[in-house]
Amino acid sequence: MKRLLAILLMATALTGCGYNDFQRLDEDTKSKWSEVLNQYQRRADLVPNIVASVKGEANFEQETLTKVIEARSKATSIQATPELINDPAAFDKFQQAQGELSSALSRLMVVAEQYPQLQANQAFRDLRVTLEGTENRITVARNAYIQSVQQYNVLARSFPTNLTGMVFGYKAKPNFTVQNEAEIARPPTVDFGSK
Question: I need a surface site. Which of 21, 79, 144, 172 has the fewest CB within 10 A?
């Protein structure tokens, strides 16, 4: 009878510990992170096509193309594993490399606006639309990851599940941040004056 009571008491105590919730949310964050990586890979695969299209169509600014190629190389050189989301320093390094690639691609598109013959090239237009769609997909995937991490981190920090987290080593996961927070907080200057 005492044994049955002890088992019943232990089972009751474990129902509120949150272990299964940690498992479920940990897998959810890994899944969402895989989708983010999938979209980053899609973008990295598009970059050589964009560069080839631009090179073939215009006497283009070599410095801009070089920066895009270097940023892609840096972004793809970081080993993106599921463990990356558990290492804040590696996560920041990965996020910074992806940000540099985004910035280089943005500069490429702005400079490309100055080349009418490039704009008229159907292949370039198609690649540009595909790249814009990919950037949107990255945004959607990152938002899903951010929400998943939020749920996981709330569980990891809430009582009594935080005790389970401490026992089993479940720590809060890093989330995406804005690299230039102070810069984007400043309102843009709009000037409609003539030059």
Answer: 79
The two three-digit tokens of residue 12, written as one number: 């009751």
What are the pLDDT digits (tens) for 17-45? 788 888 889 999 988 988 888 888 888 88
- 3-state SS string for the chain: CHHHHHHHHHHHHHHCCCHHHHHHHHHHHHHHHHHHHHHHHHHHHHHHHHHHHHHHHCCCCHHHHHHHHHHHHHHHHCCCCHHHHHCHHHHHHHHHHHHHHHHHHHHHHHHHCCCHHHHHCHHHHHHHHHHHHHHHHHHHHHHHHHHHHHHHHHHHHCCCHHHHHHHHCCCCCCCCCCCCHHHHHCCCCCCCCCC
pTM tops 0.90, yes or no: no
C-alpha 62: how far from chain center: 28
* pLDDT tens digits for range 102-124: 877 777 777 666 666 655 566 66
Q: What pLDDT is attached to residue 112?
A: 65
